[in-house]
Structure formats: C-alpha cells, structure tokens
C-alpha cells in the first residue's frame, strides 16, 4: 500500500512539473528588429529597453492567455539590408506570433514585402504617411504619422509664432522626403512658399552648404524632418556656429535624449512636435518615472513607442483569445480609447493608432510640454 501511495504522489508531482515545464517552454514569442549596432545604436538601446520593460510588466501580471511573453530581438545594423535580414530571420520559422519594427520609415519600406509574405502583424514606429497606405494590411503604427505632424508644424509656425519665411531641411530618405512634401503642402494651403528647401543624406558630417543656403535665404524659421538624432546634433551646432539664429521648429528627433546630449545649448529655444512628452498625461509621467528608476536615464520616444507596442499586442491577444495572426490583426483594429505612453490609441482602417502630436520647447536643455493637438477629436 505504501508503494502505491508513493507512486501516486510521484505521479502527481510529475504532472505538476510537466505542467510547469510546458508553460515555461510555451511562451508567446514577439520578434523585434532593433538598431543594436551601427550609427543609430543608441536609439536601438532605448527601443529594446522599452519593449523589455513592458514584457516584464505583462509577465509579472500573469502573462497573456496564461502564457508568458518572450521577446526575441534581431539586430538590423541600422541599415535597410540589415533590416530585411533581421525580419527574414524572425519569420523563417513558425514560432513568432507578431513583430515589432523600427522608427526608420525607410527600413519599414524595405521589410514590408517580407512582412506581407509572412502574414504577421508588425507594429512600427516609422512615421512616413505612406507606410500604412501601401497595401500591406499587416502594418500597424504606434506613433502618429507625418500627415499630422506637418499640419501641426505649419499651424504653430504661422499662426502662433507668426513667421512667414520658411526654410525646410530634410533627410533624403522615406521619412525626410515624406515629411518635407507634407509640410510644403500644408504651407501652400496657408499661402506660403518656402524660401529654401535643403535635402541631405543621413549620417552626414558637414552641413555647411545647407546652413549657408539658409543664411542667404533670409529665413526667419527653420523647419526640419531629420531622421537621425546624431544628424540633428551635428546640424544644430553648425547652424548656430555659422550665425543662423532663426527659430527652429522640427520633427520629434529634436527632442530626443541623444540629440540634446550631442547638441547641448545649440538646441536651446527650439520647438519640436513630439509624440512622447512627459507632461502630456498621467500615464506618460508614470512611465517616465519607471523608466528612469530602472535604467537610470530619461526615457524618450524611442523607448515609449516600443513599450506601447508590447502592451498593445498583449491587449489584442487577450481580447482575441487567440494567437492566430488574423485574429490579432482584427483585435488591433478594434482597439479604441487605449491610453498608452504615446497617447490615446484609436486604430483606424489603415492601422494608424494615433492622430495628433504634442508641441514641446527646449528650455535650457529641459523639454517643456506646451500643448497637444489630436485630430481624432476634431
């Protein structure tokens, strides 16, 4: 009799152990490409940190459908070819449930065909308007697109700052070209033609010809769509060193931690549209405090959207009660009124979750929130 009781007890223990092993070995895997090497590696660190923090929080709260989330990261080396390779690696097996892209619109363009072929949802941080309108139903965005940013920049520069002589500086990638085109169109609707438009290749070191062209144009406002924070830092220093004192209103890269560290006081007094702004909501304030406590640095947009992406996937999978790609896609589209770090998500048919921007100012190296403009409310 004792032997039988021992056997039953051992069997029960074995069942419990097997159950625990199955749960531990059966996570919901989210694949993320990130710029962990190359010229944008610092931005990649923020992205990975934000996503990891969200994964830890979700798992600490019981996971998704009773299963833990596991984040698998592939380095895209800050390049388009590296991005294609990273997504190809992530989608080569059958174990990835969903994908997280990057903030570089040109990289998202490069991987879009691979994502479409794989049939997996991918939440991205690239803001080029066309990314969610190019016929790929699997692309979702956790930042507002540049159709909104151009309207906000034009409105603020013309109607609030009362400036009419515009110089536009842009990187000649998908993000920069798209932003420039949208801003030109927005200004045209207000009866303004820019006095100069200057493009450059990302990761440039010498902006002297561009700065001199701005100086000679007599512009009283400089607006920029610059993809890389490192380029912002270099351009800012050269702009001020060569005596251009025009007011600067630019894309979110102006208010990133990387750009501000590189540029120092050359960015003081500048304005930026920003999807991430610490004082824009209680949710954002709480996130900023948690991020700084955990990583000992200030959070910025690079971490914020990736954090939201993980939380959005957790919500969609829980709501769908499924890990099937089509079910997750439908559940993402159905998310309305979710208060994330980047803003309040109301997904539309194109996969855009956010529909406005914050305006912030660099006051002696501190980003000060001014106001929010949300076109979803209009």
Q: Largest beta sheet, briefly? A: 7 strands, mixed
Q: Give the total of beta strands.
A: 14
Strand content of the residues, in percent? 15-25%
Structural class: alpha/beta
Question: How are the strands of the biggest sheet laid out side by side?
Answer: 7-6-8-9-10-13-14
Low-confidence stretches: 1-8, 11-23
In N-to-C order, the SSE pattern is: HEHEHEHEEHEHEHEHEHEHHHEEEE
Tally of DSSP helical segments: 12
Task: Work out the radius of gyration.
Answer: 23 Å
Measure the end-to-end span: 76 Å
Estimate percent helicity.
40-55%
Give the overall silhouette: globular
pLDDT averaged residue by residue: 92
What does this structure look like?
This protein is an alpha/beta fold. The protein is built from twelve helices and 14 strands. The model is unreliable at 1-8 and 11-23 (pLDDT under 50).
In short:
This protein has 378 residues and is α/β, with parallel strands linked by helices. It has helices spanning 2-25, 41-60, 80-91, 105-118, 146-160, 174-188, 208-217, 229-241, 257-263, 282-295, 301-320, 325-333; strands spanning 28-34, 69-75, 96-100, 122-124, 139-141, 166-171, 196-200, 221-225, 247-250, 271-274, 336-339, 344-346, 356-363, 366-374.
